[in-house]
Sequence to fold (691 residues):
Amino acid sequence: MDIDALPVTALKGVGPRLAEKLQRLDLYTVQDVLFHLPYRYQDRTRIVELGGLRPGMEAVVVGTIEVADVAFRGKRSLLCRISDGTGFLTLRFFHFSAAQQSRLQRGCRVRAYGEVRLTRSGLEMIHPEYTVVSEHDAPSAAEDHLTPVYPTTEGVHQLSLRRLAAQALDRHLDDIREWLPQAVLAALDFPVLKEALLCVHRPAPDAEVVLLLEGRHPLQQRLAFEELLAYQLSLLRARTTKQRQQAPSLGSQGRLHQRLLEQLPFGLTDAQRRVIDEVRRDLEQECPMQRLVQGDVGSGKTLVAAAVATFAVEAAYQVAIMAPTELLAEQHAKNFQHWFEPLGVEVARLSGKQGVRSRAAALAAIASGEAAVVVGTHALFQQGVEFAGLGLVVVDEQHRFGVHQRLALREKGNRDGRYPHQLIMTATPIPRTLAQAIYADLNVSVVDELPPNRTPVKTVVIPDSRRAEVVERVLHAGRQGQQVYWVCPLIEESEALELQTATDTETALAEALPQLRVALVHGRMRPAEKERVMAAFMGGEVDLLVATTVIEVGMDVPNASLMIIENAERLGLSQLHQLRGRVGRGTTDSSCVLLYQPPLSELARKRLSAMRETNDGFEIARRDLELRGPGEMLGTRQTGMPRFRIADIMRDQVLLPSVQRTAALLLEKYPERIDPLVRRWLGQGEKYCDI
Ligand code: ADP
Ligand code: MG
Fold:
């Protein structure tokens, strides 16, 4: 049987129970197992000297126990301090038996494997895997090749996945079909698929470790190419399907548009005008628009949305505006009401927290068509919400929604086989080549100009040792009636030790600045509580808002003119840029203080200089791309890109032109290969297009 159709239960040891669990990883067939690729490797091939350990490393070490002790402070734990002449490391065990304790004595030599963490008392490994080794043996590392680490899920052990992969490789590798045309393989000098799969699951002992760890090994690149190709093909296919769909043509004379503009206290920027025209032309078509509007933070995308909404409303259709959070929905609702109600256009607001009666009233107005514009979160598309005639959906800050939600939302508007037009707005600028690869199913417009009279935000980079000066500065701004953001990123719980938590910071700042009204907002708060605090800040009742990065998206408080970002060296460039975009929205000069903990890595130094040197989102994106090496923190989620199994769209950009050419070739000459190729990489549900 074709392994594309051979169920996982064909593998030994996989019964119905395990098969069901494997489904959670989207593993249905033997082929799925072969294409369930390690997302990283552990390097147990060499012993790292203790002096060479750095926090975050996973390493094999060998050392002699100098001190073994049971500590009772906090949680009871067994601590073994080992040394190898180059440095020290503490092995910490929370669970240990008496036998273990009596073995791990002073003088005993151990080999351990684990992740290195930095604590107050130095470098540590918590619950390392370890073995006691003899005094006389030359220390050898345990493995002769890199150890694969597979994405896993509850109830499926890493070791079972390793065993399944091994079994699938041993018994079924030869059944894998090659879908890339011979000419393409030859032209790109690609190895055969089987060899690539084998290497990725089971790297040879002599494989170049550094390349493998970085995902740049030619055999990995071969797979990354195929994955990008499958993704590209699926997007192109989606696009073709969409072009066959029907949408209402929303032609209008633009009278409402004109009236909206007349009541604005300012004129549109050229960029806004151009993008509005592009959208307007799409809306007049009879196939559904799928357009992405990119525009830097503060470029005025909300107004673009309002302007294009007028065309739909004038054509007697409804418009839905969808925001990623209740808070942003609230902000949009206010803006839209402000703009539309004077024009006699009713704006309804749907919210998760609204009372029964107000919800019923909103639902009735939406169903009757009385409300021409509806603003809300994804609650807009829940059951029970019926539109009279939805013509246009605007999705703000798209990367917080997945492709799935985008599609579900389109279905919602499906009436007699006709779909609403869709406009997606994002503040994450992506260079054009990437945009083409990622959004092949969308047209792209760019608002590449900021409204006039914006003074660029002045950015300074200051070490944490000069914190007192920064606090002075906050006081000064507060005294002038300006509002201030103080952002404390919490990167990861395990690293929280050296990071000041937002709570500590708030306490300290409130103490240091009794003159100011200080409030705290963080991601762990209940949504209602969070919104209450944010609303107080928007309303000017709070001078200093201490926050984790929850404020990143879309907040518009023009009176906020100072932003402090702590641990700025930990954040990616585009995230820093998004955060900074929260200030510089009013008429006063704004500044952004990037506080860092020395010493700075080379990369962090470059990122912070980039922030100091430019305010331009596209330039930032360009530098981000340039700086972003493999293994860098900046996650794909943040930039709204799909999560791939092996490809990394930044790292593998060089492949994109040939991916695009190959996609065209397959469409033209080998259309029958498209389906199996897409299924192999994207599975049944295209799940990992989720962005
Ligand atoms: P973003 O693109 O980040 O969503 P917003 O839509 O929140 O930006 O707009 C930022 C601010 O700029 C808002 O206060 C908005 O009223 C204002 N604005 C938008 N367009 C213009 C314009 N053409 N001239 C002056 N101010 C504008
Ligand atoms: Mg916005």
